[in-house]
Amino acid sequence: MLKNYLVDKLIELALLEDIGHGDVTTESIFEDKKASRFHFLAKEEMVLCGTDIVRKVFSSMNSDLETNFYYKDGDKIQRDTYFGEVTGDVSSILTGERTALNFLQRLSGIATNTLRYTACLKNSGIKILDTRKTTPGHRVLEKYAVKVGGGANHRFGLFDGVLIKDNHIDAAGSITEAVKKAKENIPSTVKIEVEIRNLHELKEAVKAGTDIVMLDNFKRDDIIEACKIVNKRAKIEISGGITLEEIDSLKRYDIDYISVGALTHSSYNIDISLKIGDSND
């Protein structure tokens, strides 16, 4: 996942943003190299995510730094658990600390949040999908965190999937016309999804040969009727402000996907510290 040029650029920009022309605090205190060991501490229960990018951050600071985690991405970490360490030059560690923690806290937060949603759908066959409502520039990382938390990725960007939305439909004149044009101009292996606003549009989309229909902000009674209309002729995705409290009630519908923008845009950062010294202190 992290063998991606976008990740390298993110690290470069994040360090430049934080360090600028130099870490005046650390440089004024530590004039000579001094070896030390720091430990990562989970201050709340979490799903670990972002270990590779933390290694990259510290190796970008100093190739001699050694970062080791006792757990892997996707593991559940209990509160007050030391789960990794970084050793080497104290100045390099202190200067890269905040950037490393920012990535780790954010990605672990998304993974932890996603697990809460996916746990509600266990054994249902319904997949939780993310959206493109991500932090600009951070999508590759945030979508990775969703997968670590047990969710699935919707399209990564505009380039890897056809999703015909309301403005496409209105500009094209109809769902039928928009789907027809898309089929004429994309490879046959690419699936076509259409955002549906009402049951009339749903019937038109199914007749046009849509692969996936997205029921946007549908009322619960309309979802039941929509499932009858589709009758397995297309995959069904539910979207539109789905909350964690609602997820369990959606299991009774004959649907395939639930897309949740909140996986990324409303996740909070997990509280993680980097502590110097022995982990038993």
Give a short overview.
By secondary structure, the protein is α/β, with parallel strands linked by helices. It contains eleven helices and twelve strands.
Describe what this molecule looks like in 3D.
- The longest helix is centred in the middle third of the chain and has 31 residues, at 90-120.
- The chain is built from eleven helices and twelve strands.
- The chain starts with a helix and ends in a 5-residue tail after the last strand.
- The strands form three sheets. The chain has a six-stranded parallel beta sheet.
- Helices cover 43% and strands 19% of the residues.
- The relative contact order is 0.15.
- Helix 8 packs parallel to helix 9.
- The chain has two domains: 5-117 and 268-276, Quinolinate phosphoribosyl transferase, N-terminal domain (Aldehyde Oxidoreductase, domain 3, Alpha-Beta Complex), CATH 3.90.1170; 123-265, Aldolase class I (TIM Barrel).
- With 281 residues, it is α/β, with parallel strands linked by helices.
Keywords for this entry:
281 residues, alpha/beta, Aldehyde Oxidoreductase, domain 3, TIM Barrel, six-stranded parallel β-sheet, 11 helices, elongated
What is the element layout, followed by pairings?
Blueprint: H1 5-19, H2 24-29, E1 35-42, E2 46-47, H3 51-61, E3 66-69, E4 76-77, E5 81-89, H4 90-120, E6 127-129, H5 139-148, E7 162-164, H6 166-172, H7 175-185, E8 192-196, H8 199-207, E9 212-216, H9 220-230, E10 235-239, H10 244-250, E11 257-259, H11 262-265, E12 272-276
Parallel strand pairs: 6-11, 7-8, 8-9, 9-10, 10-11
Antiparallel strand pairs: 1-5, 1-12, 2-4, 3-5
